[in-house]
Amino acid sequence: MSRRAPQEDIDESELSVTGREDHAAGPTAVAVSMKRAVEGMGTRRTAQTLLRLNQVDGFDCQGCAWPDPAPEHRHTAEFCENGVKAVTDEVTLRRVGREFFAAHSIEELAGRTDYWLGQQGRITEPMVLRAGGTHYEPISWDDAFALLASHLNGLASPDEAVFYTSGKVSNEAAFVFQLFVRAYGTNNLPDCSNMCHESTSVGLAEVIGIGKASVTLDDVHHAELIVIAGQNPGTNHPRMLSALEIAKKNGARIIDINPLREAGLTRFKNPQTVKGMAGRGTVMADLHLRVRINGDLALFQAIASLLLEWDELDRDFIEQHSHGFEAYAEHLRALDWDVVLAATGLEREEIHQAARMIAGSRKTVYCWAMGIVQHQNGVANVKEISNLAFLQGNIGKPGAGLFPVRGHSNVQGDRTMGIWERPPAHFLDALRDEFGFEPPRKHGYDSVATVKAFRDGKAKVFFGLGGNFVAAMSDTLVTEDALRKADLTVQVSTKPNRSHVVHGREALILPPLGRSERDLTGGRRQRVTVEDSVCSVHTSQGPLEPASDHLRSEVDIVCTMALATLGDRHAIPWREFRDDYGQIRRRIGRMVPGCAGYEEKVDQPGGFVLPHAPRDSRTFETDTGRANFTVSPTEVLHVPEGRLLLQTMRSHDQFNTVIYGLDDRYRGIKDGRQVVLVNPRDIEALGLREGQHVDIISEWDDGSTRSVVQFRVVAYDTPRGCAAAYYPETNALVSLDSKAVGSNQPAYKSVVVRLVPSTLDEPARGRPEGTVAHESPDTPEPQRYVAPHQLS
Ligand SMILES: Nc1nc2c(c(=O)[nH]1)N[C@H]1C(S)=C(S)[C@@H](COP(=O)(O)OP(=O)(O)OC[C@H]3O[C@@H](n4cnc5c(=O)[nH]c(N)nc54)[C@H](O)[C@@H]3O)O[C@H]1N2
Ligand SMILES: Nc1nc2c(c(=O)[nH]1)N[C@H]1C(S)=C(S)[C@@H](COP(=O)(O)OP(=O)(O)OC[C@H]3O[C@@H](n4cnc5c(=O)[nH]c(N)nc54)[C@H](O)[C@@H]3O)O[C@H]1N2
Ligand code: SF4
Ligand SMILES: [Mo]
User: Fold this and answer.
1) Which end of the chain is more exposed for a tag (fewer CB within 10 A), N or C?
2) Domains parsed from the chain with CATH numbers
């Protein structure tokens, strides 16, 4: 199995390439899951933990935001390989305490990959880095809060502080966090959503009035057709395959739109069934459209133009519920098929085939994820999928709808609770009425603006409630340099990561309880709530003994920080909130839209589903009061001669910046991560060789270039002109200014690059001269990023 001892870092020279698999899950997945679990947690804890995972009285999986089946339909083993890895990562028996930090200087830790850092285990006590210090040292919780409060209270303006959230945070912690931040005086609440489904939130809000999925799990089960665009569920939302299998049994067909033929959408061997474990499994996609990167918008328009031509429209829906159809139809009638074929790289007949399948379905669910949104035209992509759904009235009826599949397990809930740098006025009004203070109205920084604010000296304190901001963001060198300018960086983290070693003048690490752990804050057994991808809210209660006696819950950390910083400046009962999360839920029930009776409703087995006007009643709270058709220009992303379009994606052995292992099993890449997948004919045309090491160079309109070094060329079945590599190793290639129009989301999936034979035959020794990010965007000097493990 592809696992290295915890003290070893990645050695890219061990990388091997075996080729793609044609199915997901099955016996291998079960074996890998159990091996990882037992290795990481021990036998007893494995059983204790997994039997409570995703159960009604158990805890919510830390992995993705895929919904749970109705309570009566849950299996004893209601989890996937990814879920087991996510849980194991938290429940690991390894510990990182004061001895660890005394033994390793920051400089040394900075020379490690996120893989190595994460392998070291759970952080057991608060740590501080003093100004000018070389090592993190222990600090008491009281002193940590005092230090933090003195920084926050010493700023010239609350807008000089930034409060980031990653999407694992519970609803209760998220609610008190945004309350604290606004009571303190700013809306600087960026979150991982800014890098994730922000284009969805913006696009859907404009066209249907709400930025969330309009389906239930039951709709997926009963759809006639499921279109899955830019998503790799076999790796990133594995239990989705079980839902798709149910749909297929009920007669559904599936169209997969993806430059890569991912194993999970090829064939699924369901570990819950004999056929899945012993047989060939279930065929997933009936049609795979191997679209060029960023060809989706043109593809959706082409399909729509055929539906229009064939008059396969839901005229009633269009007349009664939509707005803007004529302008859209006019655009479709004028569609230039030469542009469509160039943008999509598909044959006309393939597009016709997809259109016929869509025309033949009375109930279609449209699913999408990062392959659609992480582009400069990400918002337009989302609106274009919506157009297609509106044409046939595929919203607000059983078995049909729009389904953006979310990433982090509670990223959607965090937004519902008010984690948003651009909060709507009605939310702030409700906050004012409930808590009796005037919240700030000025919009805050999103993730990209946060980096710029630190870069430009406008922000001074960074507080991260979970996540790994430095590694997740685009433009690694720029982001790192920006955060290093901070006066104070604070990370609430379960495990070590890059954001601890790229720090401000002073830095704090505050270790929280994990979701799997028993929370006895305030002397009572606390529980929290989360919301999944289909707006279903339910409780989560960890069963396990905490990793250390010094851990505090995230609610506790936030409320204590609020007390230390604000004292009794506002009439907000921080102590009551901290000691009884039910008090927080009562307030959520009083002021968060759709949450009336929250505390009682989450007591129902399986919880409750938040209201969603388009889903529930085909009503649309948009500017026109209807579902809005929109017109976006049909464009081809121009890639100059000799360049490729690169997407940055996840392997099968990571959760975002947390690298679990080095085995991207479904794609046949093992024991290394510095690979670039290229079409064999492009390899030849570019004068390269398979297995050769190249530097990847991105080129930008302002003349600047960025590069990462020593990636191995792997021949792979990706469309001509397209390439793929893993995130976060390639984030240094993505300019901070390359982002989606309208949502400001980094365009991680359409990077124009050039591959050149590697300038380093031997692994790099030290970050070479001139590779540090340049402070001014006006001096486009080449930036070269050398990964930590290539430095030693
Ligand atoms: N195991 C595991 N699970 C996860 C995560 C994880 O890292 N590991 N991360 C979680 C998070 S936060 C998120 S947001 C989700 C992400 O889930 P996904 O969105 O599935 O993740 P990605 O790997 O980024 O890649 C998406 C897919 O988009 C395709 N793609 C790339 N560019 C294009 C394009 O232009 N058009 C089309 N049609 N397809 C394209 C890629 O080939 C890939 O198959 O997963 C969540 N679940
Ligand atoms: N190039 C490229 N970049 C991307 C993407 C891409 O597809 N390509 N995807 C983007 C997307 S979709 C996302 S969502 C972001 C992810 O960005 P983030 O959410 O910021 O990153 P994660 O890697 O999920 O965060 C991992 C860290 O969270 C901490 N952690 C884990 N569990 C807990 C917990 O229970 N509590 C607390 N407090 N901390 C915990 C651990 O210390 C761990 O190191 O990355 C984005 N960046
Ligand atoms: S599908 Fe997602 S939520 Fe379900 S067990 Fe797997 S990782 Fe966890
Ligand atoms: Mo995400």
Assistant:
1) N
2) 12-91 (no CATH), 95-194+410-610 (3.40.50.740), 198-404 (3.40.228.10), 644-790 (2.40.40.20)
